Amino acid sequence: MHTLIKGVLEEILEAEVIIEYPKDREHGHYATPIAFNLAKVFKKSPLVIAEELALKISTHEKTQGFFDRVVACKGYINFTLSLDFLERFTQKALELKEQFGSQIKSERSQKQFGSQVKSEHSQK
Asked: Which residue numbers delimit the Arginyl tRNA synthetase N-terminal domain (predicted)?
């Protein structure tokens, strides 16, 4: 799932993204410190950049139904996956059984898998 999220974010932001786990789990499932690197380039504070990027990510069509929350916090962007997406991801894993890991090994396959899970979500 880590690589799936990384791929979606890199596609939206058109930059390499580092995905981490937040120190405080209440902040979400994942986080990225990308705003700190971009702050030097754009000569803005990481907090301002994180807020701008969080808005861009949360309103992007590729993330609809994917994230429940995208929040800027002290220069980080924190992500909480939607319950519906997690249920669909789990359901797909159960359907694929042993093939699940091999199905999403490559980055390309992970993007396809994520799109498949999301498209099943939008059909409901």
From this structure: 3-81
Nearest-angstrom CA–CA distance, 25 and 78: 10
Question: pTM value?
Answer: 0.74
Domains by residue range for the chain, with CATH: 2-82 (3.30.1360.70), 84-123 (no CATH)
Could you write out the DSSP letters of every residue in the chain?
A: -HHHHHHHHHHHHTS----B--SSGGG-SEEE-HHHHHHHHHTS-HHHHHHHHHHHHHHSGGGTTTEEEEEEETTEEEEEE-HHHHHHHHHHHHHHTTHHHHHT-SHHHHHHHHHHHHHHHHH-
What is the rounded CA–CA span in Å between residue 44 and residue 67? 26
For 17-38, the pLDDT digits (tens) are: 999 999 999 999 999 999 999 9
